[in-house]
Input
Amino acid sequence: MSFFSYFNSLFSKPVVGEIEVPIPEITTAPSSSWREGMWVVSGTDVGILTQFGIPCEVHLVSSTGETTKVIKVSLNTIRQATWEEIPECRRCITKEQGKELGYGA
Amino acid sequence: MALNVPDVGENLILEMITNKTASQNLVLKLYKNNITPSDTDTAATYTEVGFPGYSAITLTGASWGAAASGTITYGSQQTFTCSGTSTDDVYGYYIVQSVSGVLLYSERDASAPFAIRNSGDAVKITPTISAN
Output
């Protein structure tokens, strides 16, 4: 290596390759996160998740929209209800609004 | 049980925060159908009680205390007193806007129902909202 190339290697700025930083994608996918007040299904029964915990509390609801029973269940034994599973008299928002809340078909 | 803000209430609150929609006084109402609040509710979900002497209570803006530590409380306890015989069972309360009637939030009492049967039977509530 010549003196000049050695001199340059000592004092020149290192060349940093271009780094591609991925731009985070913001989606407007329907919300399906667990939350109190959401409609869920436990076994074959539909109800409302009222309290997180170990176990969680779910109020089972009849086809007339009223509460029939309070049960304690593990979160991994329930799932979010679909729009059709919510008692008809309790579907007070549109199907599209329901989809945005995660109550898809 | 924590109070529940349904989807319609959430949307209205967001619009009030951003000044897209002007706020209104709230109206406190008791309900008598066996409902557990959910995020798909509207004011029509609830059946208002009708015992003798009952009337909904308007909560005026100036009467709320200053918010502190994420909580705001109305200036005084509100009482609904029955003045005759009744068969109403009270399950909880719901709050709507005074002009629009849109449901903002509701709550079922953990000890519900409360039987309102005779003159003098009363339900007392101190409206409080906590954000978390």
